[in-house]
Amino acid sequence: MLDVNSGAVHVVDDLAYDILENLDETNISCKLDKKAIEKLSDKYSILEINETYEELKELYNEGELFSKDYYEKIAKNIGKAPIKAMCLNVAHDCNLRCEYCFASKGDFGTGRELMNLETAKAAIDFLIKSSKDRHNLEVDFFGGEPLMNFDVVKETVEYARNQEKKYNKNFRFTITTNGLLLTDDKIDFINENMDNVVLSLDGRKEINDRLRVTASGVGSYDTIVPKYQKLVKERKKSGKDYYVRGTFTKYNFDFTKDVLHMNELGFDQLSIEPVVSDINLDYSIKEDDLGRVFKEYETLSNEIIEQRKKGNYFNFFHFMLDLNQGPCAIKRLKGCGCGNEYVSVTPNGDIFPCHQFVGKSEWKMGNVLNDEFNEDIKDYFSKTTVYNKSDCKDCWAKFYCSGGCNANNLQYAGDVLKSHKLSCDLERKRLECAIMIKVAESKF
Known about the structure:
The chain is α/β, with parallel strands linked by helices. Helices cover 40% and strands 12% of the residues. The strands form 2 sheets. An 11-stranded mixed β-sheet has the order 9-8-7-6-5-4-1-10-11-12-13, with helices on one face. Strand 10 and strand 11 (350-352) form a beta hairpin. The two termini are 20 Å apart.
């Protein structure tokens, strides 16, 4: 049982659950009414009913059941914040032609182009200036495939490091790669300089190579897996972050096997995302598929529990949940800093709210080369909280998903402030599984 506003999770017996069917915040502080007692007395004794009711009432008095919503007041006071993170699209080009790529197979629909060093430096300067008094800043080297422009990546890191002391900043770097161009020297540089690295792999060879192919149609699995294994093996020595990110489609409803396969390869930080699309792709997940996907999430949840009982602990990104403390209030209200604290910069210097808005000219915020920036768009995104999204207000998961992905909402629901139903259904199921795993772990 989840209390939405406090975040408290209670494991209850059948009696407590049945009593709660007859309670809400308007009557729990009173005595249980006679009709409810008569209904429950067919299954339970009056003594049991009264004792359990008093226990539930105690939870209410402690603020862990039917708790009040204090977040809406906070939401009304949220405004623009200094930028702290940037997705640097150093390559609008890619050496893979993945069928499901949201970036139009690497060029974002704007033509194949690599960022030059002048633009990259200007982007770093823009981030430093726009961050104001923030000390910790984040830069994600992204594409397309950023290793196709690796010299600029290296020189950008060097430039940013040279600015840190001058402006009292600390840069944290991430790179997302498909792995094809990884070499020993690139692995060494990444492990030394990148605080996080995202490695793309869809799981089993036959699954990965069906959609993650080169321009000539050759699968990527055999090339990238040994490189990933070497990178991760060396990376684990330093304790730096990484995760292997995959996708699943109708071709692998049994994606638990892909997660376990990646774990068997030596990877313990894992993610696998559904391919959803408004285009009629044969393999994308649609509403009719949700039953099968939900069942597989449950299969994966139970497998994770069994693995952890055996001492094999690996993280699955969508099941990572902190029930004891969790994120701060602002993160609960709008988990994504898109367009406000976070922006994306393209090879020609254009600024967009995030990498998934790139190519949508109406959402262009400015350009790092001419010092222009649209504060109105920034102000708009600063107010995209769960209380400004009508579908979120009464959703039990709102403080966990924080309103979902703004770009997905725009792409599939036609409005940043309208929820994409399919994505919401998937997220609620993942959260349900994540809570179940936490409860199961508490009993180990």
